[in-house]
Amino acid sequence: MHELSIATAIVEHAEETARLHGGGRVSAVRVRVGEMAGAVPDALRFSFDVAREGTALESARLLVEEVPARARCTPCGTDFAVGTPPLMWCPQCDQPSRELVGGRELEVVAVELEEAGV
């Protein structure tokens, strides 16, 4: 389960961010996970719960924004949902597309820190 290594990297990143901002505790981490990123959001949430134990993220929440896969048709410029299984065939002009414009994201977008005295 590679989600555990991803979750560990998220925890390490959030701990470093907290350290750079005064060493406070992390209350939440916001991530974007694309449909085609190769990470299962529920497995990532579970792994995060395991990886955060004994860290500054002990009580932090992992907030996952799931990003649907989208493609763009080169011939006509139409953006469309790729779906599962991945079909990158334009519904507008019936041509194949090779340009994936969304759905591969796997990124930390925010680390939320607890306010002092909380």
How do you describe this structure in short?
InterPro entries: HypA/HybF. The protein is an alpha+beta fold and 118 residues long. The protein has helices spanning 3-20, 41-51, and strands spanning 26-34, 61-67, 70-72, 79-81, 99-102, 106-113.
Give the SSE map.
Blueprint: H1 3-20, E1 26-34, H2 41-51, E2 61-67, E3 70-72, E4 79-81, E5 99-102, E6 106-113
Binding site for Zn(2+): 73, 76, 90, 93
Function: Involved in the maturation of [NiFe] hydrogenases. Required for nickel insertion into the metal center of the hydrogenase.
Keywords: Metal-binding, Nickel, Zinc
What descriptors fit this protein?
118 residues; alpha+beta; hypothetical protein PF0899 fold; 3-stranded mixed sheet; 3-stranded antiparallel sheet; elongated; HypA/HybF; metal-binding; nickel; Hydrogenase maturation factor HypA; zinc
